[in-house]
Each structure stands twice: as C-alpha cells, then as structure tokens.
Amino acid sequence: MSQVSDNQMMFKVLGSGCKKCQTLEDNVRQACQEEGLEITVEHERDFVKISSYGVMSTPALVLNEDVVSSGKVLTVEDVKKIIREVPYVD
C-alpha cells in the first residue's frame, strides 16, 4: 500500500484501461497541474481490487482511499472542484 504524506494527494483511477479510464486519468493529471499540485496517480486494473472499493461501475476515481466518483468520466473542472473540497489543500 502506498503511503501519502499529509500534504500530498493520491488519486487512483479504477478501471480496465479503456479510453474512458485513460481520459479520466489525463483529466486528473491536468487538473492537478493547473492547480499547481504534486500528486501521485495510480491506475488500478485488477477487478478484485476495484471491487474492494465497492465500485460497481467504472471508470471510478479514488482520492486518498475514498471513492469520489464512479461510472463517469470527470472533466478537468470536476476534478478541480473535488481537489478544492479536500480540507488540507491550499
């Protein structure tokens, strides 16, 4: 399991690696870059691990081990909104 410092966010894209999953990952990276944040982004393709998050539809997005979206491709703006809701991000 990856360790995340208090000031670093870690995103996981959950899905098979299809175009929708890749688009979500790209949008997460772009949103974080535009917000000036250093992040870790992982892509989990193992459906046993994906199901352990309780996700029934992909792509899904996990932020610091909490599922924040499933079943849709978030836009860059959607991801920025999620980032801004994290209490310790300036």
Could you explain how this protein is built, in words?
α1 packs across α3. A hairpin with a 2-residue loop joins β3 and β4. The N terminus is likely disordered. The chain is α+β, with helices and mostly antiparallel strands and 90 residues long. The chain contains three helices and four strands. The chain has a four-stranded mixed beta sheet. Helices cover 36% and strands 23% of the residues. The chain is globular. It has a single domain, classed as 3-Layer(aba) Sandwich (Glutaredoxin), CATH 3.40.30.
* CATH topology assignment: Glutaredoxin
Q: Radius of gyration in whole Å, from Cα?
A: 12 Å
Largest beta sheet: strand ordering: 2-1-3-4
Report the strand count.
4
Order of helices and strands: EHEHEEH
What separation lies between the terminal Cα atoms? 26 Å
- What structural category characterises the helix and strand content? alpha+beta
Helix content: 25-40%
On the 0-100 scale, what is the average pLDDT? 89
Largest sheet: 4 strands, mixed
The number of helical runs is 3
Indicate the low-confidence ranges by residue numbers.
Answer: 1-6
CATH class: Alpha Beta
**What sort of overall outline do the alpha carbons produce when their principal axes are compared?**
globular
CATH architecture: 3-Layer(aba) Sandwich
What percentage of the residues does DSSP assign to strands (E)?
Answer: 15-25%
How many discrete structural domains? 1
Tell me the name of the CATH homologous superfamily.
Glutaredoxin
